[in-house]
Amino acid sequence: MMTLEDFVTNFVEFAELEGEFKSTTILKESEEWDSMTAMMMIGFCSEHFGRTLTGNELEELITLGDIYERITQ
Fold first, then answer.
1. Which of 8, 5, 4, 71 is nearest to 42 (CA)?
2. Residues 26, 14 contacting (CB under 8 angstroms)
3. Cβ-based neighbour number of residue 27 at 10 Å
4. Degrees (nearest 5) of the Cα angle 37, 5, 44?
5. Distance from first CA to last CA of the chain, Å, rounded?
6. Residue 62: which of 23, 14, 17, 5 has the closest Cα?
7. Between 33 and which of 5, 19, 27, 59 could a Cys-Cys bridge form, CB atoms 3.0 to 4.6 Å apart?
8. What is the mean pLDDT of each run of 10 residues along the chain (73 residues)?
9. H-type helices in 1-73, by residue range?
10. What is the Rg, in whole angstroms, of the alpha carbon atoms belonging to the chain?
11. This model's pTM is above 0.70
């Protein structure tokens, strides 16, 4: 299973994000978090975890750590 740290690192590389992201980064406060990045997160979670997140779920989740917790439950 992918650790939280690996999840953050792998997603940042997957989405080719430039900013500094940590598990505690508040996504909506990041200039790089937009609808395209959210769609990439949905694809990333589906590909690596076999779990499909909805747009509504992503709206509820505040940090990358929150997303990780949701998909690894």
1. 71
2. no
3. 19
4. 35
5. 12
6. 23
7. 27
8. 95 94 95 95 96 93 97 93
9. 4-14, 35-49, 55-60, 64-71
10. 11
11. yes
Q: What is the CATH number of the domain that holds 14?
A: 1.10.1200.10
- At residue 65, the pLDDT reads 98
pLDDT of residue 49: 95
Q: Residue 14 has which token pair?
A: 């997957």
What per-residue confidence (pLDDT) applies to 43?
Answer: 96
- What is the residue type of 6? D
**Residue 37 CA from chain centroid, whole number:** 8
What is the tally of structural domains in the chain? 1
Q: Which two tokens stand for residue 64?
A: 């990358």
